[in-house]
Amino acid sequence: KKLPMEHPAKRRPTAPLRLFGCGCTVLGQLGTTSATPETLFKPVPVDWKSRCSAPTLATTWGSSFVFDTAEDADTDQGFCCLASFGFAAQPEADLPDRLRHIAWQNDAAAIVPAARPRCVLQGNAVVLATESPVQHLAATTSALLVATENKLLEMRVPPEKKASRPHKADDFDVKLILELHERPRVQQLVCGATHSLLLLQDGTVHSWGQGGHGQLGHGDVSSQVAPRAIESLLGIRISNLACGAWHSLVLSEDGVVYSFGWNKHGQLGRATTAEECQAHEDRDFVVGSAVPGAVALSADDPPVTSITCGSAHSCALTASNSLFSWGWGQYGQTGLGDVAARRRPALVPLPLHLRLYHVACSYDSWHTLLLVCSAEDG
């Protein structure tokens, strides 16, 4: 079953786009000035406006980025950085003119240039050369994941070499995680702080990494060293994945959100039973649910078209151009006007004349970005 409406971000905007943000601002990640408060509790305009052909956003710890895609004979397929704010902000000249993939590990960027699709770079140093073009790139706090047409690789820097930056190829231990020769191709690869999710083109979801908060979705809190299919999602075609630090969201093709993992701040957006809330080694952490469960947005339940996760909050954009958020709100990152944690999805108040094109946050971010334009113009 296909979505009844197209995600706004899939349509090319015809009007100038504006950037809005909420949450923590202390590192300038929302393009703010010294007069700006340290937290913004509702989405407010960021000092940036531009025309983009196919815009997208990205966040990492203390930083925000705006990208635009391009596909023509002169530039090769890829995207370019239009603007950056905050701790890891880099002038556009510091990045290749066109990128195919970019991922952040703490404050270091790993890049696949459009001109060198078989190379992963940190700074100007090649850290991995692959036999076929890199198709997906993602990172946990300690591992860099690289998917090609037929392999899924994991790269880790041993503790004794972590101090050196940028890393070189021989600094990494490279491990083959999965052979993809006889499997459907990778559709999406995402990471949380210590776990990873993999979506194959047949709609199946695989997870691995640390599972102590139930974030792998296998019904227990054990860890997995290799990708394992999430059995409770078999039979449900999944179209999109998102990872918080220790929780996970998946989106089905018919617009239903499923959540699992840590739920201390309500980031799962649903009730968890006493049986599901298993104690963790650290008593400050609990497992909300180790089994995926559906998230109800509202009585009308509009189909969801995209999902994203912050460190401990979650967002969902619907086909009716509504934005819902829930979970940890200490820095205003939910955009709901206060610091309260929300244990159920709540509608983010936005001016009616704005059309949402993209929403972004990341497992290490305490802020949320929104790309919008006027509904009359877009």
List keywords for this structure.
378 residues, mainly beta, 4-stranded antiparallel sheet, 0% helix
Break the fold down into its secondary structure elements and pairings.
Layout: E1 17-24, E2 39-50, E3 55-60, E4 63-70, E5 78-86, E6 99-105, E7 108-113, E8 119-122, E9 125-129, E10 136-139, E11 143-147, E12 151-156, E13 173-179, E14 186-191, E15 195-200, E16 205-209, E17 224-229, E18 238-243, E19 247-252, E20 257-262, E21 287-295, E22 304-309, E23 313-318, E24 323-327, E25 342-347, E26 354-360, E27 367-374
Antiparallel strand pairs: 1-2, 1-27, 3-4, 4-5, 6-7, 7-8, 8-9, 10-11, 11-12, 12-13, 14-15, 15-16, 16-17, 18-19, 19-20, 20-21, 22-23, 23-24, 24-25, 26-27
Summarize the structure in words:
The chain is mainly beta and 378 residues long. Helices cover 0% and strands 46% of the residues. The protein has no helices and 27 strands. It has strands at 17-24, 39-50, 55-60, 63-70, 78-86, 99-105, 108-113, 119-122, 125-129, 136-139, 143-147, 151-156, 173-179, 186-191, 195-200, 205-209, 224-229, 238-243, 247-252, 257-262, 287-295, 304-309, 313-318, 323-327, 342-347, 354-360, 367-374. The strands form seven sheets. It has a four-stranded antiparallel beta sheet with strand order 2-1-27-26, with no helix packed on it. Mean pLDDT is 86; it is low at 1-9.
Number of strands: 27
Largest sheet: 4 strands, antiparallel
Poorly predicted sequence stretches spanning 5 or more consecutive residues:
1-9
Task: Work out the oligomeric state of the chains in this entry.
Answer: single chain
Overall pLDDT, averaged?
Answer: 86
Principal-axis shape equals globular
Question: What is the beta-strand fraction?
Answer: over 45%
Helix/strand/pairing category: mainly beta
Widest beta sheet: strand line-up? 2-1-27-26
Radius of gyration: 20 Å
User: Alpha-carbon distance between the termini?
Assistant: 27 Å
In DSSP terms (H or I, runs of 4 or more residues), the helix count works out at 0
What is the helix/strand order?
A: EEEEEEEEEEEEEEEEEEEEEEEEEEE
**Percent in helix:** under 10%
